[in-house]
Amino acid sequence: MGSVPAGAARLEELRLSVHEDRIEAALRLGEHRAVVPELRELLDRHPLRERLAALLMRALFADGGQAEALVVFERTRRHLAEELGTDPSAELVGLHHELLSADPSPSPIAPPAPLTAFVGRAGEVAAIAELLGEARLVTLTGPGGVGKTRLAVEVCAAETQQVCFMELGALRDGALVPQALLRALGLRERGLHVAAGDGDPLERLVAALSGRALLLVLDNCEHLVEEVAASAARLLAACPRLKVLATSREALGVIGEHLHPVRPLDDGAAVELFTARARAVRRGFVPDPQAVRRVCVALDNLPLAIELAAARLRTVGLDELAARLTDRLAVAARGTRAVDERHRTLRSVIAWSWDLLSGPEARAARRFAVFAEGAGVESALRVCDTDEETLESLADKSLLEWAGGRYRMLATIRAYAGERLDAAGETAAVRQAHARTLLELARAAEPWLRRHEQLGWLAVLAAEHSDLVAAVEWAVAAGETGAAAELLASASTYLWIRGVSGALAQQAAALLDAVGDAPPDGHDEAYAICVLLAASGPAGREVWRRHRVPAERALGAAWSGPEPGRYPAALLLWMMHNAGDGDAPAALALVSAQRDRPEPWVRAAAHYVSAFGFLGNGEREKADSAFRAAVTGFRALGERWGAALALDALAGLAGARGAREEARALTEEALTLAEQLGAWEDCADLLVNRGDQRIDADPAAARADYARAAEFARRAGSASATAATRRARGDLALLEGDTAAAEELYAQALAQLDPHWIKGLGHRVRALAGLGRAAEARGDRAGARAHYQEAARSASVPGATLPDALRFLGLPESWVEAVGGE
Q1: In whole angstroms, what is the distance from residue 4 CA to residue 414 CA?
Q2: Short-list 49, 55, 57, CA closest to 80
Q3: Three-class SS of residue 564?
Q4: Please, which residues bridge with residue 257 across strands?
Q5: C-alpha span between 228 and 166 (Å, rounded)
Q6: In the sheet where 242-248 sits, what is the strand order?
Q7: Spatial distance between the Cα atoms of 339 and 345, rounded to a whole number of angstroms
Q8: Would you state the pLDDT for residue 5?
Q9: What are the residues whose beta carbons fall under 8 Å from the beta carbon of 197, sequence distance 6 or more?
Q10: Which residues are within 8 A (CB) of 150 and not within 5 positions of it... i.e. 6 or more apart?
Q11: Residue 1's pLDDT band (boundaries 50, 70, 90)?
């Protein structure tokens, strides 16, 4: 009897191995999308089977679903740890690293991958490409469903220069257009030192794109025409190599705009499209050309209407389809109609397709309307309260699309689905479910953002960015202050590390206006984080002035008891904000007091912050020890944000005591981490630091570092980083005896440096001291003394000697002696 279970287990193992072999063969043939549902089902039944996890990760990644693939790894790792007490195999860990390294840094959003063949408009693609050769702004206009977006995608495919595709349908606040464009380009609003940024996001875009050849596609602009037009006009005026292709139901109205009206397909192309889509759902479909033409004409030859109708041939015949459509549309087949009538035709076809849905399908479809930019499978299942079979059925009927490991709904269909959701009286409940799902995801991700798994979870949350914004907007507007505060707090670590806190700064400020000067009950820490977020936005100074003191009390209460707060990153951010404009000693005391907490990231952050306290007291050895403890802690976790900050600070101390080789090694390690996070302006600053560390011994190597830093600064669109590179080039010019060039570069740097940028202090001091050295070289002793005195005042650190402060800020020893002597 005892042999039966063992035999059954062997048979089950053999059966699973056969399944895995078959699926692996399918993946080699490129059938990644087809095997995903089966792999999900198998892995749900066998969550500890690593080969299944690896196959699903590869299938998702091949379909563009990097974030989903990384989630599969994390879920499998957790199951193995909780149930077996083991780590994933070396093979699975290797695959995880492979997926992470496939795209370790942000890059421009590519056009969506077409799911079907392009029919009937090859000549139009060529005409638009030719028009873009003559004009720098081309807008494709036409009613919803006429094919503007697909036409733009095909134009992108023929484009030879780099393309960035920005879908604006999910954006509701026109003021956030520049931030959305930064995100689409893979750019940050601010660096790793997040307390200050480079000001206006639009000007950051201008700086990033001023010398770059790029086709920027702005899709679905009609609901934000004024704001999109203003941004496009500014960028085109300042960036001569930029071209813009927009899609909208109306013109942008910008000078120099060329319009290309997108009209319905001609009769032949419409029939070809219907036939192609019909054969996709009904293999062996043999069309009756006259019947197909009658259907297409009744649909005004609108591509979306044709696709919705053709999808129904899975269950009905062509004659029946034609009869149903004729009854529903109640129009004769009489050629092209006016735009408003075409809109009514499309709406009627969507309504007809909707009415043919089963009850569960209609329920899932209308609930899906709350997603701003599509959804992964798990989120869609939860919010829509449905199953995978229903979602797949909606995709078969062209009401959903599947791409990149996510479902999405076209804007025209989503608008109708939203109406059906309102009519069903479910909007508030589904919005609440959507917000709850996003909150749970962000809370689950937050601890992993402070670990080695950071890059994977950043990708997961980046895929949900628009929906995080939408969930917060709904919660604030609905008066759900507690939910809004927790959503903002749970997303904040992602927002700060990714450098996109401005996306929710206005919503955080609106929430603070709603709650007043005291936190909502039970949400003290979240309230303090909202203050930090709002302080990073356009109303930052006023928010900080009004809310800093109650936020300080709230954060102190959360982190003064035996139980720690939920969001440790807030401690580091609190210190950064208070260092420049607040109660720095109190913030230093609060964060430093966390050095004995059991959470390792908190301990590392506390050591990092306490080091600055020791430095301010002139205790360099204690500061060095604290920075080393921070570096050790962050390294052990594999966390890149804190490690890069601590390594940079430790390198500064090493350089100050003359250990240039050690300083260079620490800087290079920090540079690698900053590159992985896509923090280009921090890369620029670190390269400048490395150049400074070897300018005396190897000026040629320093010149190369400064040139590369300038490229990173331009790529980031950072005026502050550009100023740092100009200061560095000033030092090089001074070393080479070109005092006039040095003085010009120093003056440009001083004019451009952000006074609130924490790293800018060192560059300011070096620039002022450099001007002093240049004045000395010209024999202007009075001018030199004035510059040295201003450098000394700028470098003043309470409790530290002036030479020590200057050394920590990176001045060469000969300069320290010269400035110190004045």
Answers
A1: 54
A2: 49
A3: coil
A4: 137
A5: 11
A6: 162-167, 214-219, 242-248, 137-141, 257-261
A7: 10
A8: 63
A9: 189, 190, 191, 204, 502, 536
A10: 114, 118, 303
A11: very low
- The answer to whether 190 and 198 have CB atoms below 8 angstroms apart is yes
Closest by Cα among 14, 61, 10, 70 to 35: 61
pLDDT digits (tens, 9 = 90+) for 19-70: 787 887 777 766 676 777 788 888 888 888 888 888 888 888 776 666 677 7
Is residue 31 classed exposed, middle or buried when 0-12, 13-18 and 19+ CB atoms within 10 A define those classes? middle
pLDDT attached to residue 66? 66
Dihedral of CA 240/242/245/246: which sign? negative
3-class SS of residue 374:
coil
Count of CB atoms situated within 10 Å of the CB of 592: 21
Joined tokens for residue 163? 């393309």
What is the distance between the alpha carbons of residues 322 and 291, in angstroms, rounded to a whole number? 7
Of the candidates 395, 146, 91, 175, which has an alpha carbon nearest to the alpha carbon of residue 262?
Answer: 146
**pLDDT, mean of residues 656-684:** 90
Radius of gyration of the chain (CA): 30
Structure tokens that stand for 221 in this block = 């602009």
Q: Which residues 6+ apart lie within 8 Å of 781 measured at CB?
A: 775
Torsion angle of alpha carbons 524, 528, 530, 535, nearest 10°?
160
Q: Which stretches does DSSP call E strand in 458-538? A: none
Strand, helix or coil for residue 99: helix
C-alpha–C-alpha distance, residues 786 and 776, integer Å: 11
Range in 192-201, 512-521, 647-656 with the lowest mean pLDDT: 192-201
- Alpha-carbon separation of residue 55 from 28, 74, 94 (angstroms): 11, 15, 13
Which DSSP helix (H) or strand (E) runs through 162?
strand 162-167
Confirm if 726 and 749 have CB atoms less than 8 A apart: yes
Distance between CA atoms of residues 239 and 654, nearest Å: 41
pLDDT value at position 332? 31
- The tokens for 574 are 């609190």
Identify the residue whose tokens are 């702005």: 218
* Stretch (H or E) spanning 247: strand 242-248
Rounded Cα–Cα distance for residues 625 and 631 (Å): 10
- The whole model's pTM is what? 0.82
Between the two ends of the chain, the Cα-to-Cα distance in Å is 95
Q: Counting beta carbons within 10 angstroms of the beta carbon of residue 427, is it exposed (0 to 12), middle (13 to 18) or buried (19 or more)?
A: middle
CB atoms within 10 A of CB 85: 7
pLDDT tens-place string over residues 437-491: 999 999 999 999 999 889 889 988 998 999 999 999 999 999 999 999 999 999 9
User: Cα separation of 143 and 263, whole Å?
Assistant: 8
* Token pair belonging to 427: 């909007």
Pair of tokens at residue 47: 């969550």
Supply 165's token pair: 């595709």
Distance CA 249, CA 807 (A): 60
CA distances from 209 to 129, 162, 313, 340, 627 (A): 21, 12, 48, 38, 37
The answer to whether the beta carbons of residues 481 and 150 sit under 8 Å apart is no
Distances, alpha carbon 249 to alpha carbons 4, 164, 223, 373, in Å? 68, 21, 9, 20
Whole-number Å distance between alpha carbons of 313 and 436:
38
Instruction: Tell me how far the alpha carbon of residue 366 is from its chain's centroid.
Output: 27
**Based on the number of CB atoms within 10 Å of its own CB, is 454 exposed (0-12), middle (13-18) or buried (19 or more)?**
buried
The C-alpha atoms of residue 302 and residue 147 are separated, in whole angstroms, by 8
For residues 589 and 555, what is the distance between their CA atoms, to the nearest angstrom?
12
Can you state the percent helix, strand and coil of the chain, rounding each to 5?
70, 5, 25
Residue 163 has φ and ψ, to the nearest 5°, of -125, 140
- Amino acid 65: pLDDT: 66
